[in-house]
Protein: Gamma-glutamylcyclotransferase
Organism: Nothoprocta pentlandii
Amino acid sequence: VWIFGYGSLVWRPGFEFTSRKVGFIRGYSRRFWQGDTFHRGSAKAPGRVVTLLEERGACTWGVAYKVCGEQIAASLQYLNVREAVLGGYDTKLVKFHPQEKDAGEPILALVYIATPQNPSYLGPASEEDIAAQIIVSSGCAGHNIEYLLRLADFMRFFCPQAEDEHLFSIEEALISILPSLYLTEESLEET
């Protein structure tokens, strides 16, 4: 079984796997439209994590993990809790295209996608509003800022040829907010 990750699974799968491949799926774009009140946020300050939006001509890069034998049941059980129960994601099968030039045919992979019907779905917002929400959110897996920056770093390092305007616009908005936030906190401490 292959499992495709496009968010925190790219750097922290949390399950055993036999091999991994960087690559992409077609027909979906990555969006910070899913709320998170457990891993990267709380009930008072929900974090923003990614989901996939069906979009003709779009492409989303990530990592596919091959799980075999006993790894299958354990990984699916773990992901069912992490993604479905706690995250509100549904599963779909997609065609994964490995980055390697001699990869051959696409691989069928399982992917978790949050839909607008789930209660944690936040939907679209401006890059600045998403960045502002990410800055104040933290959950049991860490700060929401870490989630955004690790995902942006993954894209730069493993998929430099790929474009993800949504991701990089939010990162840019976050970086522009941070200095003013730091200065505001510093001025408050002086008073």
Summary: Confidence is low (pLDDT under 50) at residues 184-188. DSSP finds four helices and seven strands in the chain. The domain at 2-190 is CATH 3.10.490.10 (Hypothetical upf0131 protein ytfp). Helices lie at 70-85, 127-135, 144-158, 165-190.
